[in-house]
Amino acid sequence: MIQRFDTGPRMSEMTTHNDVAYLAGQVPEDTGVDIVGQTEQVLHAIDDLLQQAGTDKTRILRAEIFLADMADFNGMNEAWEKWVPQGATPARATVQAKLAKPDWKIEIVITAAIA
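^ Putative translation initiation inhibitor, yjgF family, sequence as received from the core. Prediction below:
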């Protein structure tokens, strides 16, 4: 069974299937803050979605991180390393990308196990 969360006309914020949660790219709401603040917002949104699916950040299988500017890599990692559980770090890729809105500094896509 496929379950969809926060479904809109273009996309769902998350889908689940076969005990795996697939999150849409999460972006910051307040773009008036630096990369650390934007990353913290995105990580909070990820926590909320994972909770809705009945899982948490210790069950993340893969993280795909898109930065508008690789100069923000260290600041992003500062927030990431405070948030990610040591010993349960997921496979991860980080790339520079042109994001959909110019004020977004970061977008993160997550895949996580549910059971």
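The CA atoms of residues 6 and 65 lie 22 Å apart.
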